[in-house]
Design a protein that fits this description.
Strand content: 15-25%
Number of helices: 16
CATH superfamily of the domain at 430-565: Fumarate reductase/succinate dehydrogenase flavoprotein-like, C-terminal domain
Distance between the termini: 60 Å
Structural class: alpha/beta
Oligomer: single chain
Helix content: 25-40%
Bound molecules: flavin-adenine dinucleotide
CATH architecture of the domain at 430-565: Up-down Bundle
Length: 578
């Protein structure tokens, strides 16, 4: 039996972006948050290092310097109107959180303390600047708790452990969503005047990732299956300091506090790649430098396949007090004490720059020519607004989710106040229902977990820090085979109550969608820019490629690519030097 619910605003996802949107919408219209996880388990809670804003509490700073760094860090692919909005609103966004009670670290004068982070500089690249506001290395945890409390205070309603499977589209406009209740196996249709997706990233397409198990690209996957585009999917960020073999993140804050990267000779190799800001160069450059160090035989360890994060020259008290969690990770998982010895690290799949294309009001774009989808919004890591372009700077994501979450919440409430609910057809849930029935009752062959592992392996081997035509072609063939196997795969557990095998199966479908969209977009882009490095096309080519990619899948199941110009502004593209 399908159950119906009626709202003015429905937000899918209870991470920082979803909760910030819900808080704004919830003050104005009847609002629900639908989330596959209990809100405080969202990945935002794992964010460590900080959220940046040019508060100038510790050193001279300005939002315009922040905007310059963001555009340069993005390898000039970010839309500069969106970057201006984010960097200007950063200051009030941090102060809003402070007023809500977020326990930021303080300076001795009682102001919000700030620290250095990669790519953030003073006066257009002169030297690293202290711009990241933080709560030890648990900044995201504090943001999530603070926003959840505020949403409860505003009377936002929560549907936790509800898995959203589909959009309800009526004449090209969004009229609601279809969700599967994990506890009972029931389907629910939420009729809503406006819907906002804030479903987070999809690092789980890769074998080694800092991302939580649930980051599987469901939101962008639903959008892609509805024939709507995804933007800049080829740009995925690899963070330079994941724990060796595990990928668990050691925040860039470790380098912000003075940590140094070294190769097997003990050399501070980043001096060669980025002479001015060295270890605090943007992540794409540092990860690529690590890739070359290992490739050229200067990796550490018996297999010369990792590098070392050296914190031994940082005051042990700073390490213990300002980086308590990551210090503990190194001790627990690798049995290495960062205060005494270098920690083995490798690049780890970390952040999706691409996603659901939106305007600066978080409205979802229907195509690359500027139309939008009525009643449909997206914000946070699942969206591409685009403030991060080809490479995101550290601490700009917690900022992005709060700034554009807020704008999305406002925009959807405004839309809901001026529009009527569209009539939702009675069969809105039927496609989802038949698919589940077939999976549970059908007699299919293969369990899906092997497909997941093979996908993660091929993406890691062929579509990660370095790419080329041959590898991308190979990956695409593999993805096609895996898609065919998936269509014929089966779920063993036939129960309705907490069928997590079924949930993981649905997630795998979205992982395959994300992998396809990413790999096709990466193969088409025959240049290197930001996180997308092609060994067979090593230069950035602004004449051809200063544009955003839009990928769609048509009804026949074929992918199509379109391109949209980058919105430039004060900064003309120049060679990136640090
Ligand atoms: C380990 C780690 C450390 C990080 N550190 C920093 C940092 O210091 N600074 C910084 O700026 N950024 C950092 N980042 C990045 C940043 O944390 C994320 O990009 C950001 O928090 C994403 O927020 P979000 O609200 O978009 O998504 P998330 O917080 O991931 O939330 C996604 C939500 O969507 C819901 N959802 C997903 N699929 C479905 C579905 N099918 N149905 C219903 N609900 C669904 C989930 O339940 C969840 O509530 C870090 C990331 C990681 C992984």
């Amino acid at each position: 039996m399908v159950q119906y619910h009626d709202y003015d605003a429905v937000i899918v996802g209870a991470g920082g972006a979803g909760l910030r949107a819900a808080l704004e919408a919830g003050k104005r219209v009847k609002t629900a948050v639908v989330s596959k996880l209990y809100p405080t388990r969202s990945h935002t809670g794992a964010a460590q290092g900080g959220m940046c804003a040019a508060l100038a509490n510790v050193e001279e700073d300005s939002w315009e310097w922040h905007a310059f760094d963001t555009v340069k860090g993005s390898d000039f692919l970010a839309d500069q109107d969106a970057v201006d909005v984010m960097c200007k609103e950063a200051v009030t966004s941090v102060l809003d959180l402070e007023r809500m009670g977020l326990p930021f670290n303080r300076t001795s004068e009682g102001k919000i303390d700030q620290r250095r982070f990669g790519g953030h500089t003073r006066n257009h690249g002169e030297a690293a600047v202290k711009r990241a506001c933080y709560a030890a290395d648990r900044t995201g945890h504090m943001i999530l708790q603070t926003l959840f409390q505020q949403c409860n205070k505003e009377g936002v309603e929560f549907y936790n452990e509800f898995f959203v499977m589909d959009l309800v589209m009526v004449d090209g406009a969004c009229a609601g969503i279809v969700a599967y209740e994990i506890a009972t196996g029931e389907l629910h249709v939420f009729r809503s005047k406006s819907v906002l997706f804030a479903t987070g990233g999809y690092g789980k397409i890769y074998k080694i990732t800092s991302n939580a198990h649930t980051l599987t690209g469901d939101g962008p996957g639903v959008v892609y299956r509805n024939g709507l585009p995804l933007e800049d999917m080829e740009f995925f960020q690899f963070h330079p300091t994941g724990l060796y073999r595990l990928g668990i993140l050691l925040s860039e804050a470790a380098r912000g506090e003075g940590g140094i990267l070294r190769n097997s000779d003990g050399e501070r190799f980043m001096e060669r790649y980025a002479p001015t800001i060295k270890d605090l160069a943007p992540r794409d450059m540092v990860s690529r430098a690590e890739f070359f160090e290992i490739k050229e035989g200067r990796g550490a360890g018996p297999q010369q396949d990792y590098l070392l994060l050296d914190l031994t020259e940082v005051d042990p008290e700073v390490v213990e007090k300002k980086l308590p969690d990551i210090t503990e990770f190194a001790r627990t998982y690798l049995d290495v004490d960062p205060v005494k010895e270098g920690v083995p690290i490798v690049p780890t799949a970390h952040y999706a720059m691409g996603g659901i294309p939106t305007t600066i009001e978080a409205e979802v774009r229907r195509n690359h020519t500027g139309d939008t989808v009525d009643g449909f919004y997206a914000a946070g890591e699942c969206a591409c607004v685009s403030v991060h372009g080809a490479n995101r700077l550290g601490t700009n994501s917690l900022l992005d989710i709060v700034v554009f979450g807020r704008r999305g919440g406002l925009a959807m409430a405004e839309y809901a106040s001026t529009h009527k609910q569209l009539e939702v057809p009675e069969d809105a849930h039927v496609e989802s229902e038949s698919w589940i029935m077939e999976l549970l009752e059908g007699d299919k062959r293969e369990p899906s977990h092997a497909i997941r592992t093979e996908l993660q392996d091929v993406m890691w081997d062929k579509v990660s820090v370095s790419r080329d035509e041959e590898g991308l072609g190979h990956a695409l063939k593999t993805i096609d085979t895996l898609k065919a196997r998936f269509a014929d795969a089966h779920v063993k557990d036939q129960s309705k109550i907490f069928n997590t095998e079924l949930v993981e199966h649905m997630e795998l479908g979205y992982l395959l969608d994300m992998a396809e969209a990413l790999t096709v977009s990466a193969r088409a882009r025959t240049e290197s820019r930001g996180g997308h490095y092609r060994e067979d096309h090593q230069l950035r080519e602004d004449d051809h490629w200063l544009k955003h990619s839009f990928i769609t899948r048509n009804e026949e199941g074929d992918t199509e690519l379109g391109y949209m110009d980058v919105t430039l502004g004060r900064y003309e593209p120049v060679e990136r030097k640090y």
